[in-house]
Amino acid sequence: QVQLAEIGGGLVQAGGSLRLSCAASGRTFRIYDMGWFRQAPGTEREFVAVTTYSGDSTDYADSVKGRFTVSRDNAKNTVYLQMNSLKPEDTALYYCGAAYYGSSLSYLRAPTTYNYWGQGTQVTVSS
To answer: Which residues make beta-bridge pairs with 126?
Structure first.
């Protein structure tokens, strides 16, 4: 069992930055691939970024590539999402998810691949 808790959301002006953190409980964090997703009202949960269990591989949605960076610290059981050059269209509830390691990066773009989810943290970008 893994419990996830996201922090770091807030209100920021367009062009600004935020850093989200997702802390995981349990001693097996290092064997989970960790993804970030977001969901705006009336839309489906959308893939943002993922880092594999070792941190050696990452993947990003085209809409955030070059602006967002995902990283993890297995010693702290935490995954991060650094978001720069934020745009109003980045406004959403951001979730982190944990998927037992072994899936391909393409499968890790699908929410159904994930075994555990946090409660989400709201990011609002004003124009």
So the answer is: 13
CA 3 to chain centre: 15
What is the total residue count of the chain? 127
Return the half-sphere exposure (C-beta side, CA atoms, 13 A cut-off) of residue 117: 15
Residues 6+ away with beta carbon under 8 Å from 109: 47, 50, 59, 61
Tell me which amino acid residue 89 is.
E
Q: What is the mean pLDDT of each run of 10 residues along the chain (127 residues)?
A: 95 98 87 96 97 94 98 94 98 97 93 96 97
Q: What is the spatial distance between Cα 60 and Cα 75, in angstroms, rounded to a whole number?
A: 23
- What pLDDT does residue 62 have? 98
d(CA 110, CA 71): 19
State the DSSP H helix or E strand holding residue 71, giving kind and residue range, or none if neither. strand 68-73
Radius of gyration of the chain (CA): 13
Separation CA 48–CA 62 (nearest Å) = 9
- The Cα 39–Cα 28 span in angstroms is 27
Longest dimension (CA), the chain: 41
